[in-house]
Specification:
Elements (H helix, E strand, L loop, with lengths): L24 H11 L3 H17 L9 E5 L5 H8 L3 E6 L13 E3 L13 E7 L8 H7 L4 E11 L22 H8 L17 H9 L4 E8 L14 H5 L3 E7 L2 H4 L2
Parallel strand pairs: 1-2, 1-4, 2-3, 4-5
Antiparallel strand pairs: 5-7, 6-7
């Protein structure tokens, strides 16, 4: 099934085309302050991300096999399912929301299991999972194995030096991954879910984009701050992008071996 329309089939990150004005960061903050991170908060993010994919030529719909990798409650996959995609959900444990009971689910640990065991897909979503991987490098090196020819990977994560890099113990993460959470514990004294190098790992925008570009089977097509993609130019600024992106979104394509040799 063709996933990508001709608008984006040959697009490359070097073009740095101007994004439509779709900033949502202010709306997310208002939503969070009013309702915290309720289901609507995450559904809003997923709808916006799928809209970004559609604006760059990815066409989720009937006949498209999609994988929501590290799916959590399955919010992202549910948005794709509403568009007609055939969605598989995967995570370390099945915590899908009740309305997804009976959906195809594969129990999987990205750090330890063989990606090839997941099958192959036209679209793979890995949203807000990357910073929780102990071994993000091997994941990128092998992800082409689960992409069909012309398949796409949507990779989005909270980069370490962004304002929310430490998640609930932000901004104390700026004191460093060995110290920040401990200072938070002493001063704030609220429970936290994340501990650096246990279930939260420092990741960087420039380092990740460079890694993608070194993998022959992958091509970096688009990169933007997820919540204000019209400011994609920020990702051209070394060092500054690490602080200003907040959450980085990459659209990555699989390179067909026969085409890459032409």
């Amino acid at each position: 099934m063709a996933l990508v329309c001709c608008f984006c089939a040959s697009a490359a990150i070097g073009s740095w085309a101007v994004e439509p004005s779709v900033m949502i960061i202010h709306r997310l903050i208002l939503q969070y302050l009013a309702h915290r991170d309720d289901p609507a908060f995450y559904e809003f993010q997923a709808e916006d991300a799928v809209g970004w994919l559609e604006r760059w030529g990815v066409v989720p719909g009937p006949g498209v096999r999609a994988l929501d990798l590290g799916c959590g409650h399955g919010t992202f996959g549910a948005v794709l399912s509403k568009r007609g995609c055939e969605v598989t959900y995967s995570d370390e444990s099945n915590n899908l929301m009740p309305k997804l009971a009976g959906a195809r689910f594969l129990k999987f640990n990205i750090d330890t299991d063989d990606l090839a065991g997941l099958g192959s897909y036209d679209l793979v979503i890995c949203s807000n999972v990357y910073e929780h991987l102990a071994k993000p490098g091997p994941f990128l090196e092998n992800v082409a194995r689960i992409l069909n020819p012309d398949g796409r990977l949507y990779l989005s994560w909270t980069n370490w030096l962004s304002a929310w890099g430490g998640h609930e113990f932000s901004p104390f993460h700026y004191l460093g991954p060995r110290r920040g959470h401990r200072v938070y514990d002493k001063l704030v004294k609220r429970p936290r879910k994340h501990t650096p190098y246990v279930n939260l790992f420092p990741t960087y925008v420039g380092e990740t984009m460079k890694k993608v570009r070194t993998i022959p089977e992958l091509r970096l097509l688009r990169a933007a701050p997820r919540y204000y993609p019209e400011l994609a130019v920020l990702l051209r600024l070394p060092v500054l992008r690490e602080f200003l992106a907040w959450n980085c979104a990459l659209l990555i394509g699989r390179v067909d071996a026969t085409r890459s040799g032409q």
